Amino acid sequence: MKIFGLIGYPLSHSFSKKYFTQKFAKENIKDCSYELFPIEEIDQLPELISNIRELRGLNVTIPYKEKVIDFLDELEEGAKAVAAVNTIRIADQKLTGYNTDVFGFEKSLRGFVEKSRRGFPEKALILGTGGAAKAVHYVLEKLGIKSLMVSRSIDKGQLNYTDLDALIIKENQLIINTTPLGMSPDVQSFPSLPYREIGSDHLLFDLVYNPGKTVFLEKGEDQGAAIQNGLDMLYGQAEKAWEIWNQ
Fold first, then answer.
1. Rounded to the nearest 10 degrees, how much is the dihedral formed by the CA atoms of 34, 38, 41, 46?
2. Which residue in the list 17, 18, 65, 240 is annotated as catalytic?
3. Whether 92 and 109 share a structural domain
4. 65 tagged catalytic
5. DSSP code of 207?
């Protein structure tokens, strides 16, 4: 039996477990299972791997995407560039870190832009500064889109939410939420933006997938913006993780 799973804390909801359990059943994969491992501290990772010898791969979620790097033997290019890991391959007693957020986001963004028929914008705002935000920034840079991160704190090279005026919103026609604001069960929360300045030229992308339409997306849609949630991105990164674990 090969075991795969998800580490993070807490793990009250998991797209990954449902996705892979259904995948194994649908594709008649009988020698694999996918489990949840809610570890309270990242220091518990070596013990987990030592205790479960059948473990072949892990997904990594909040709050360990950056902290887990210290426990790995090697990083692939995307993970190294964004300094965040969301997939680990375990083979020959070696742990290799990957970032499938990069793959999933790029694939989903390309599809979203094509469907919207608006074309790629020149500038974007990234709401949040965590591991997912860094993956988004890496993809945008690759696509030639200039981006600025927006944070609640005041840091050099970043914008604060209080900086977001009509001009900034108008200039940045792609706005990507990488924060957990709006995620179930806190579905009424949303990023603090001057939504009245959003228009039909804007593209709003939310990495949150549950609920399917967050308040952030609803407010953008009300202003005529094209919207996209994070579900398609999750499908892409899940399949990429499966590919990595089976290479």
1. -30
2. 65
3. no
4. yes
5. S
